[in-house]
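BLUF domain-containing protein: structure, please.
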Amino acid sequence: MYLRLVYISTMRRPLDEAECTQILAASRRNNGADGITGLLVAGGNRFLQLLEGPAAVVERCFHRIGRDPRHFAVVTLDRRETSERQCPDWAMGFLPGGCAADGASLGEIVEALVGPIADKNLKAQFTGFAQIQSAA
Ligand SMILES: Cc1cc2nc3c(=O)[nH]c(=O)nc-3n(C[C@H](O)[C@H](O)[C@H](O)COP(=O)(O)O)c2cc1C
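Here you go.
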């Protein structure tokens, strides 16, 4: 069984490209080693993240993320045991302030990222987030 965890949080201040790269690098390294997959999307001043993997490592990772000063008001939206992963890998998408958007809209970025997600509600959580943050 795996633990699936989805949370939303608020950026302390807009992230610059170096910080995006740093989060991406640390996450790829740690999540890869721990067998954690999922998605991180930054839109407007919010993060939405899905973490999935063995419960103990997901809990440990979430605890570490929760103490990160780059964001606050971390609110868990979903926490459940599941027999299947929704993402084959770990990925990240950014829109605001210089973060590797290549002219694509947040909706387009998120649409590409949620491609592998079969769970309709989970997918809607991410596409809805993109819509709300694009309108904000
Ligand atoms: C919104 C957000 C999401 C993050 N997601 C992850 C993640 O999925 N995995 C991870 O290891 N670190 C993540 N981090 C970074 C951690 O908070 C922490 O800086 C990092 O795990 C430290 O790794 P290190 O000790 O290997 O340098 C995230 C940080 C933020 C602000």
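Notes: The longest strand covers residues 71-82.
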